[in-house]
């Protein structure tokens, strides 16, 4: 075999492997979210209150090609089957990734979220991409869809007092204002919703759970090497999943959509179904 012919065959093989990897990464990005579940026992759970189910979503990143509004509408319908009592969305509803084939309007991005059916409602905090897009337009559309937006604010829903910290990555977080807003609402089961987990160390008192997103669990994570980045000044401290940090229970979701590139490796889309209930008496 001539050397030149052998060389071209190797190039063709490498090209085919590259195409296969891109196809696999895109398939990973567009698969249905993995539903992860956990239980949090709360010591001061209100007497007579049955358990509550929280659904945590993050990083929806509506944009073409991987997250058109039609896909989000289908996911919302599937998640309704879990019968959550409250839906918590940890920011980044939109995306302007370089590989986007279509950027949708605020109305198109938000409309599918109006399909959630949760007795205690739907709450969202902005992410960095939401601030870079058009936060006023997004907030207006969310309020039209009866979705509560928290920007360093708090809301009481049933027995829950939910504090929503605005985005840390884009410089809008005010943890002290959020905690003060929670205090003004009086007693209840405290929860904090934030886009970036980098706000967590500033929460100096315990709450039942802190729920976040932003890291995408790395989005592209290589075997043995790990993720390219978690976009966090704390590295992998708050990288992904169900964790305890300084005795504080924390959940960080991988998100539904993608940023920069419509690819995922070893980090499937996910949503967390977290059940809050009374702490069992110990003998």
Provide an overview of this structure.
The chain is α/β, with parallel strands linked by helices and 283 residues long. It has one domain (31-278): Metallo-dependent phosphatases (Purple Acid Phosphatase, chain A, domain 2), CATH 3.60.21. The chain is 25% helix and 24% strand. It contains 6 helices and 14 strands. The chain has helices spanning 3-30, 69-80, 106-110, 128-133, 135-144, 175-184; strands spanning 34-42, 52-57, 86-89, 122-124, 147-149, 153-157, 160-165, 189-194, 209-212, 221-222, 226-227, 241-245, 248-252, 270-278. The strands form 3 sheets. Strands 1-14-2-3-4-5 form a 6-stranded mixed sheet. A 6-stranded mixed sheet has the order 6-7-8-9-13-12. The chain has a two-stranded antiparallel sheet with strand order 10-11. The chain is globular, with a radius of gyration of 20 Å. It starts with a helix and ends in a 5-residue tail after the last strand. GO terms for molecular function: metal ion binding; UDP-2,3-diacylglucosamine hydrolase activity. Keywords: Hydrolase, Metal-binding. Pfam families: Metallophos. This is Phosphohydrolase. Residues 53-217 form the Calcineurin-like phosphoesterase domain.
């Amino acid at each position: 075999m001539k050397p030149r012919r052998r060389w071209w065959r190797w190039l063709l093989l490498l090209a085919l492997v590259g195409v296969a990897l891109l196809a696999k990464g895109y398939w990973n990005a567009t698969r249905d979210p993995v539903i992860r579940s956990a239980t949090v026992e709360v010591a001061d759970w209100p007497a007579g209150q049955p358990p509550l189910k929280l659904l945590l979503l993050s990083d929806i990143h509506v944009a073409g090609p991987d997250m058109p509004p039609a896909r989000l509408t289908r996911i919302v319908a599937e998640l309704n089957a879990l019968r959550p009592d409250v839906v918590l969305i940890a920011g980044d509803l939109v995306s302007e990734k370089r590989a986007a084939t279509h950027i949708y309007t605020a109305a198109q991005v938000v409309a599918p979220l109006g399909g959630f059916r949760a007795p205690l409602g739907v709450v969202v905090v902005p992410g960095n991409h939401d601030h870079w897009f058009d936060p006023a337009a997004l907030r207006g559309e969310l309020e039209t869809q009866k979705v509560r937006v928290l920007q360093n604010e708090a809301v009481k829903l049933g027995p829950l007092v939910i504090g929503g910290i605005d985005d840390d990555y884009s410089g809008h977080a005010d943890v002290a204002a959020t905690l003060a807003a929670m205090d003004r609402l009086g007693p209840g089961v405290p929860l904090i919703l934030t886009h970036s987990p980098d706000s967590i160390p500033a929460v100096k008192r315990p709450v039942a759970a802190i729920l976040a997103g932003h890291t995408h669990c790395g989005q592209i994570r290589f075997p043995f090497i790990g993720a390219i980045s978690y976009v966090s000044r704390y590295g992998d401290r708050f990288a992904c999943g169900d964790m305890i940090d300084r005795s504080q229970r924390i959940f960080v979701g991988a998100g539904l959509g993608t940023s920069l590139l419509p690819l995922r490796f070893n980090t499937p889309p996910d949503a967390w179904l977290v059940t809050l209930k009374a702490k069992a008496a110990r003998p």
